[in-house]
Amino acid sequence: MKTLVIAAHPNMEGSLVNKTWMNRLRDEEDVTVHELYAAYPDGNIDMEREQELLLAHDRIVFQFPLYWYSSPALLKEWQDVVLTYGWAYGAEGTKLHGKEFMLAISTGGPEEAYQAGGYNNYSLSELLKPFQATANLTGMRYLPVFKIQGVRMLNEAQVKESAEALAAQIKAQF
Q1: Which value, in Å, is the radius of gyration of the alpha carbons in the chain?
Q2: How many CB atoms lie within 10 A of CB 66?
Q3: What is the pTM of this model?
Q4: How far is residue 157's CA from residue 161's CA, in Å, rounded to a whole number?
Q5: Is pLDDT above 90 for 29?
């Protein structure tokens, strides 16, 4: 199974977690890591190139830190530009049907902050519903989310452990 990891972090060099994940995944066979902010520093996304990448892979992973309860801006722009009507959805938009879709998410706040009555009032699952809806609309199978929360409190060993766990989940059969 060929996997495309679309890594989106506006400051990847400054991110211990997302940078560690990305670097670890580059060592995996049949995994392509595509760093959006490095590929498109000007924000001008090449729709055809991105669609070709999607077609060449069986599993699509969005890797990002949760920003304002969603993805970083360039990943949202990528979705708007690449997942077009007639290609990704709509009567003729079947190009992604049958592919698998997964999220790899990091949050600054701890798990208990993401629940009813917690600091953010909503569970992470509730906040990620738009991504699940995107998978449904485009005919992709939504896989279990990989998450690490409370990243500000993690030490280097825990971050490396999470990178190994992410690599294992990306390679797993569901």
Answers
A1: 16
A2: 22
A3: 0.96
A4: 6
A5: yes
